[in-house]
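REVIEWER CHECKLIST
Item 1: Sequence provided? yes
Item 2: Single chain? yes
Item 3: Sequence as submitted:
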Amino acid sequence: MAGAKRASDGQPSAAKRPRLSSTQQPSGIPENQLQAMEKDELVSFILKLQKQLATAIQAPPSPPATPATPALSKEDLDRKVSKARAMMEKGIKSQMKWKPSCKGGSARFSYSGVVATASVFLTLFCLSADWKKKQILFSPLDFQDTIDTDISTSIRYGYLNITGEKVTVRWNAEDLTFTVTGFYGL
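Item 4: Structure as written out by the authors:
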């Protein structure tokens, strides 16, 4: 039956929030009790509510505590660096496809990666621990020497290699992400 509606059982669904009654105030005291209070009681009650409100406004909820990332052991660091290196190599190679712009070496690649800690990034690109910049430039040969991998892809009658004057590595320390961009061609 396409257009039939379900019959209501008369009970509100559990997903709806209960509403405050018209006599219930947000403070939790019914309106008739507020009207029955003396002036001094009302003033003290209002002052108490103002203090609660000021405390709630002044102390915003603290973000949930994130556990600090523990320092990686040498073996874990090496394992994560080699995994990041292999993923980067595979990601760049997968973008290296034949295009007419490859003749002039002006085809572009861009690889974005995520690392577990900043120390993995620093070790991957052979940077010192006090390196704080957001970008680093490599020549294509220095880039391949630094990551200790030859990045080239076989095509029908030749090979595609990283070309151009520079390979740019951008680092975002907040998100622990990096982006490698450059050119490739014959």
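Item 5: Key structural point noted by reviewer: The CA atoms of residues 143 and 167 lie 7 Å apart.
Item 6: Recommendation: ____
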